[in-house]
Amino acid sequence: MKKFNYIITLCLIFITINHSYASNKFITLQSTTSTRDSGLYNYLLPIFEKEFKIDIRLIAVGTGQALSNIRNCDGDLAITHAPDLEKIYLSKGYISERIEFMHNDFIFIGPNSDPLNIATSSNPDEVLSKIYSNKTKFISRGDSSGTHISELNLWSQAYLSPETYKDTWYMEVGQGMGATLNIAIGSNAYTYSDRSTWINFKNKSNHKILYSNSELLKNQYSLLLANSTRCPKTKNNLINIFKDWLLSEEGKLLIKSYMVKNQALFHVD
Fold first, then answer.
1. Which CATH superfamily is 107-212 part of?
2. How does strand 218-226 pair with strand 77-80?
3. Mind listing the pLDDT tens digit for each residue in 31-82?
4. What is the pTM of this model?
5. What Cα–Cα distance (Å) separates residue 181 from each residue in 37, 39, 202?
6. Cα–Cα distance for residue pair 120/216, rounded to 1 Å
7. Which are the contacts of 39, defined by CB distance < 8 A and separation ≥ 6?
8. CATH topology of 2-104+218-268 equal to that of 107-212?
């Protein structure tokens, strides 16, 4: 009986050790909300996890916050979409590698009636000039996300300063893309979104895409690896497995094949 109990105890210890080891096989992914809201991760990550037995712990926040979290050693890698800011983080050594791997585009959303007729605009400057001159309600994410950074860059390029009119017609809501779209629709306002979130968005109501230009409004996504010299707990071996898989032919094919309503949401680089 004692021998039997001894064997059972050893088995339990073995199971506990194995469980502890398995539970430690994970990487923390800091990510923009747009890739989550598009549904891409629900499609993509379970395939990786099943194949490699590595869990992905996803933290979806605005790009600015995701990058800050990486800088603070609170993640192993990130997927973001603010190229200029990412390059600054790379130059300062907060990340060790930046790889552009997929893209789509940004779009202007507004009421079907399009009272400003922005659908006929020849470029983003004209879109924003119409909104600005008419003081028509515009909902901005206002959360330092990649989408917000892109929007602010467009205002700057058009030599316009909507911040002067905060809380009148220009509303910064400090929310993710899905919540921002809901507020814009509820307010019958214009807004700026990434295409993938909009396609996957359920509550379109009386709003639609009014202006797009895939060249001028390109939305570039990059994979960023935390700098293990600064952050010794970074799981280099695991993140390299994920990086190699994401950039492989299998990973590219999965990204290209992800569709919503028969529309591809992302294009691989």
1. Periplasmic binding protein-like II (3.40.190.10)
2. antiparallel
3. 998 899 899 999 999 999 999 999 999 999 989 999 999 999 999 999 999 9
4. 0.85
5. 12, 16, 10
6. 16
7. 200, 258, 260, 265
8. yes
